[in-house]
Amino acid sequence: MSFSRVAIIGLGLLGGSIGLAVREHLAGVETTGHDVDPKVRERARQRGLVDTVVDDAADAVRDADLVILCVPVGAMASAAEAIAPGLSADAVVSDVGSSKLSVARALAAALPGATLIPAHPVAGTEESGPDAGFATLFHHRWCILTPPEDAPRDKVAALKKFWQALGSTVEVMDAEHHDLVLAVTSHIPHLIAYTIVGTASDLEDVTRSEVIKYSAGGFRDFTRIAASDPVMWRDVFLNNREAVLEMMDRFLTDLGMMREAIRAGDGELMFDQFSKTRAIRRRIVEQGQDDARPDFGRHDHE
Ligand code: NAP
Predict the structure, then answer these.
(1) What are the domain boundaries of the chain?
(2) Which of 25, 57, 88, 209 is deepest in the core (most CB within 10 A)?
(3) Atom number, ligand 1, closest to the C-alpha of residue 124
(4) Domain boundaries 5-173, CATH class
(5) H or E stretch covering 21
(6) Which atom of ligand 1 has the smallest separation from the CA of 76?
(7) pLDDT tens, 236-247?
């Protein structure tokens, strides 16, 4: 099977990108979309993010065989409740939320009996809203599906095919494991960035203008992540609490070890650690997950 009518709820970065990517890669597949914010709906119409922008959530999903919820994780329950009256019995309901256990629970509670196949495209930028989306967002990026054990195999296969058509490589794992993996690869790095940027801006003996002036020393790479959408990230930490706390404890232990190494002048430990991390960066570049050019290619225009 494959999907022919896709409804997208939430027309920001992720929802808009899915709409544009479907138009580019899946000829003949119709898209409808809804966003709770009338201004976003208007902008989505202007940009043509989906074929039809619908004012009512239930109407938007009425004939859809695939519904994708692209709202902040904390809004998944209310978005699911709003589509319930219009949902076809055989439709697949999926989402793009950054944490999966809590979303799976929220969707199951709001849509009893529906076919739920949660998903997380590991693709994004620090931008949000209806102007942020673009058709190639999912190219060469992973998309993780976390189907419940009883999810129909043909529907899981169809969703896999859908994401592959948008340019992603698909992996299937259970929701709990997803949340742990993403806690360390995404959620903790965001927390560190939010914290270090906050720390630097609150210093008394180093002025904020100095922090900005000398940011090329490393700070500015944290500011890109720390510019990410506050609503989205508040919801991620509220919803992936257990996995984030577990990984944070590990991180704090390791940070304490580095603190001890610096205090004790243990250069060997630092050298070993920094060599290991350099090798991880090389593997990320080798696997096409980032730009190989030094300093992310920032000086290519000079
Ligand atoms: P976004 O650009 O802010 O878009 C979300 C849109 O959903 C907003 O227009 C929002 O409107 C709307 N919305 C909120 N509640 C709604 C509801 N109940 N019904 C309909 N629309 C609603 O956010 P995004 O970056 O696309 O993120 C969407 C989801 O993707 C989140 O769950 C996030 O965890 C996940 N994700 C994000 C990234 C990333 O890098 N950004 C990557 C992978 C996955 P208002 O702004 O007016 O509330």
Answers:
(1) 5-173, 177-290
(2) 57
(3) 40
(4) alpha beta
(5) helix 13-25
(6) 18
(7) 999 999 999 999
How many Å apart are CA 296 and CA 290, to the nearest integer? 8
Give per-residue pLDDT as tens, 126-141: 999 999 999 999 999 9
Instruction: Please state, in angstroms and rounded to a whole number, the distance separating the CA atoms of residues 91 and 5.
Output: 10
Q: What is the mean pLDDT of residues 260-275?
A: 97
Architecture of 177-290 per CATH? Orthogonal Bundle (1.10)
Distance (Å, whole) CA 215 – CA 278: 21
Q: Token pair 């510019």 is at which residue?
A: 227
Cα 132 to averaged position of ligand 1 atoms, centre (Å): 11
Residue 272 identity: D
> What is the tens place of the pLDDT at every residue in 157-213?
999 999 999 999 999 999 999 999 999 999 999 999 999 999 998 888 888 889 999
